[in-house]
């Protein structure tokens, strides 16, 4: 026994140990799984963080103007490879726009165009109106850079309309400014002025000095081109007074305004006043070389030209050479031509005709290669001066090109106006169509509402007429029933009186006489004549029979009073007979014979009759019943009416609002009785009516 216990204890111990080892094993596995999951989650989180950090780093380095172009382009591509794998949401679009901006700063128009179309496509597919409008402004910048001015103008116009609809005044002002710059570059000065003034009218945002500066600056350039130099100086001064700390450093606002003010004084031929502005602009040399080298080259050239006009040799011709070198490295065709023409003028004034011709011819060659006829004007004009033998040829070509350019300028201005007009016309047509459709909807809706209103009124009137008709019919039926009851009562009363009279006559008249005859005949029995005696006995027997018959008739007439079927029962039986003959449902009726209907008031009997009638009508209409039962019974002083069917049943809570049940309840209330209805779908219906205080 002990050995057995020990063995079993050892086995139990081993089982417990195995179970503990097994549980420990499971815990280790769960711990490892949780550890791996956490590690994976943290790894994914760290990967996302690293990607975000990398993206920010790449975008920042791509915008480092001090780095080489190839290096910056490499960073842009790395940033793009991260962004393209992001979900198609607003954040991805924002990052793609940032990539496009980097391409723009690098003058990589192909990359800029590709990214812009990608964002536009994604925005249209997701119905992102804000980014669609923004993409159109970027597309306008691309077409403007490629000289496709009508497409650029159309793109800006699309963006403008969207920003108006979005009530985005900041972007609306920025887009109108871009459109104004495009018009200015195409010498549509009137259109440019109108667009920039429209931009100013909506530029009401705080801290929007960048747009305000660009608007003032552009207005100064426009009025300078128009020859309104005083107004030009006024707007350039306004631009200069703005806080340049709130304006992006890439614009180089101070240096730009200094250069533009100097150009106005150059056009006024006041070169002494122009030189200080160019010199102040060049004080920003370090920033200009990094952020805006084209402006730096322009300032050098303008300073050199004003000094040349002042017949000062300071820094000449080195200023022209340096400017030409910068413009050539940036492939600025117009700037290259201007620098070469200024060098030609400089060497011509120094009687070095060879170099003067050399630079003029170089400028002419660059202009012809540029396919921009406007660039030909300066070289042709300069060559006509320094090469008099060919002046007529140069002047003729100059006049032809100038005339064609003026016509082209008028055409492009008209084209801009036509594009804007057609867009507004389409918008007006759409607006008119929308208004027309809205009016049609309003008219149709009004007619529909009016029609429904009239229909409801008509239906309500018809319903009211039907209800009044039913009420009048009900009153008429009640009056007819009362007349029937009264008539039945009158007939019954007359019959009872007549029966009483006949019974009385039989009892008091005929029986009395017959009794006298019997008495007389009985007295004859004292005569002992055998034949007379036999005959008298037969008469007496006959008289007794007659007397008995009369008594029976009299008793039968009196008994008929109580045994005649009551008039209410007859009316109800007529209703039941009509139900049986008209409808397929089997009718089973039971009227307690112990009920004394003469003790029941006519009002109660009318209401009970109407309840039976209404119930049978509802059963015939809705119940789809096979068997209908109607039962009258008496308990103590209460009269019970129960109507049941085996039909489809109904929802009692909803049906209580029906006019039929409301009428029944109203009738029961008049009788001071109670009304109970039990019904379920598929289980038939039972209506129980209790009328109290029926004295029997």
TrEMBL record:
Repeat (TPR) residue spans along the chain: 213-246, 255-288
CDD domains xrefs: HATPase_UhpB-NarQ-NarX-like
Residue ranges occupied by any Histidine kinase domain in the UniProt entry: 608-695
Enzyme Commission code(s) on record: 2.7.13.3
Regions annotated as coiled coil: 536-563
Pfam families in the record: HATPase_c, HisKA_3, TPR_12
Catalytic activity as recorded in UniProt: ATP + protein L-histidine = ADP + protein N-phospho-L-histidine
Entry's transmembrane regions: 440-457
SUPFAM superfamilies, per database record: ATPase domain of HSP90 chaperone/DNA topoisomerase II/histidine kinase, TPR-like
Keywords: ATP-binding, Coiled coil, Kinase, Membrane, Nucleotide-binding, Phosphoprotein, TPR repeat, Transferase, Transmembrane, Transmembrane helix, Two-component regulatory system
Gene Ontology CC entries for this record: membrane
SMART domains documented for this protein: HATPase_c, TPR
InterPro entries: HATPase_C_sf (IPR036890), HATPase_dom (IPR003594), His_kinase_dom (IPR005467), Sensor_HK_TwoCompSys (IPR050482), Sig_transdc_His_kin_sub3_dim/P (IPR011712), TPR-like_helical_dom_sf (IPR011990), TPR_rpt (IPR019734)
GO molecular function, one term: protein dimerization activity
Name the UniProt record assigns to this protein: histidine kinase
């Amino acid at each position: 026994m002990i050995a057995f216990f020990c063995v079993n204890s050892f086995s139990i111990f081993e089982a417990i140990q195995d179970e503990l080892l097994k549980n420990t094993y499971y815990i280790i596995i769960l711990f490892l799984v949780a550890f791996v999951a956490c590690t994976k989650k943290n790894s994914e989180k760290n990967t996302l963080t690293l990607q975000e950090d990398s993206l920010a780093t790449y975008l920042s380095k791509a915008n480092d103007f001090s780095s080489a172009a190839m290096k910056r382009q490499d960073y842009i591509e790395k940033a793009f490879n991260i962004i393209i794998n992001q979900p198609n949401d607003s954040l991805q679009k924002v990052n793609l726009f940032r990539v496009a901006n980097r391409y723009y700063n690098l003058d990589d128009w192909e990359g800029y165009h590709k990214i812009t179309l990608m964002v536009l496509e994604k925005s249209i597919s997701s119905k992102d109106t804000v980014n669609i409008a923004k993409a159109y402004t970027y597309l306008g910048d691309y077409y403007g850079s490629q000289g496709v001015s009508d497409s650029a103008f159309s793109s800006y116009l699309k963006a403008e309309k969207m920003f108006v609809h979005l009530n985005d005044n900041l972007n609306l002002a920025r887009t109108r400014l871009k459109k104004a710059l495009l018009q200015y570059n195409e010498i549509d000065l009137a259109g440019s002025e109108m667009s920039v003034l429209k931009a100013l009218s909506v530029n009401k945002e705080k801290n929007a000095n960048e747009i305000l500066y660009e608007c003032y600056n552009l207005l100064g350039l426009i009025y300078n081109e128009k020859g309104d130099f005083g107004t030009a100086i006024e707007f350039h001064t306004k631009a200069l007074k703005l806080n340049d700390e709130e304006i992006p450093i890439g614009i180089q606002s101070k240096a730009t305004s200094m250069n533009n003010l100097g150009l106005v004084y150059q056009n006024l031929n006041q070169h002494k006043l122009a030189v200080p502005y160019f010199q102040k602009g060049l004080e920003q040399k370090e920033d200009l070389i990094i952020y805006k080298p084209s402006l730096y080259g322009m300032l050098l050239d303008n300073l050199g030209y004003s000094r040349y006009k002042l017949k000062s040799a300071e820094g000449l011709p080195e200023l022209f050479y340096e400017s030409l070198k910068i413009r050539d490295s940036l492939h600025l065709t117009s700037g290259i031509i201007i620098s070469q023409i200024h060098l030609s003028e400089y060497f011509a004034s120094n009687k070095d005709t060879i170099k003067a011709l050399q630079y003029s011819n170089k400028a002419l060659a660059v202009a012809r290669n540029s396919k921009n006829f406007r660039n030909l004007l300066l070289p042709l004009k300069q060559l006509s001066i320094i090469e008099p033998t060919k002046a007529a040829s140069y002047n003729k070509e100059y006049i032809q090109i100038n005339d064609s350019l003026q016509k082209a300028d008028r055409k492009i201005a008209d084209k801009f106006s036509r594009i804007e007009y057609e867009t507004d016309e389409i918008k007006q047509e759409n607006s008119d169509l929308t208004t027309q459709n809205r009016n049609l909807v309003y008219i149709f809706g009004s007619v529909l509402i009016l029609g429904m209103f009239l229909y409801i009124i008509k239906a309500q009137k018809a319903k009211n007429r039907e209800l009044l008709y039913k009420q009048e019919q009900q009153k008429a039926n009640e009056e007819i029933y009362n007349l029937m009851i009264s008539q039945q009562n009158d007939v019954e009363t007359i019959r009872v009186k007549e029966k009483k009279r006949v019974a009385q006559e039989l009892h008091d008249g005929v029986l009395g006489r017959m009794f006298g005859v019997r008495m007389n005949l009985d007295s004859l029995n004292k005569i002992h004549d055998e034949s007379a005696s036999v005959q008298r006995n037969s008469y007496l027997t006959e008289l007794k029979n007659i007397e008995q018959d009369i008594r029976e008739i009299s008793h039968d007439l009196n008994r008929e009073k109580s045994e005649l079927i009551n008039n209410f029962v007859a009316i109800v039986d007529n209703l039941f007979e009509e139900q049986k003959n008209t409808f397929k449902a089997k009718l089973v009726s039971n009227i307690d014979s112990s009920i004394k209907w003469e003790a029941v008031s006519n009002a109660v009997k009318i209401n009970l009759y109407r309840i039976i009638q209404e119930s049978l009508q509802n059963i015939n209409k809705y119940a789809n019943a096979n068997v209908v039962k109607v039962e009258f019974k008496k308990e103590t002083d209460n009269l019970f009416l129960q109507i049941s069917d085996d039909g489809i049943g109904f929802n009692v809570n909803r049906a209580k609002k029906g006019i039929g049940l409301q009428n029944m309840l109203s009738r029961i209330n008049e009788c001071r009785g109670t009304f109970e209805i039990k019904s379920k779908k598929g289980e038939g219906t039972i209506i129980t009516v209790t009328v109290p205080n029926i004295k029997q």
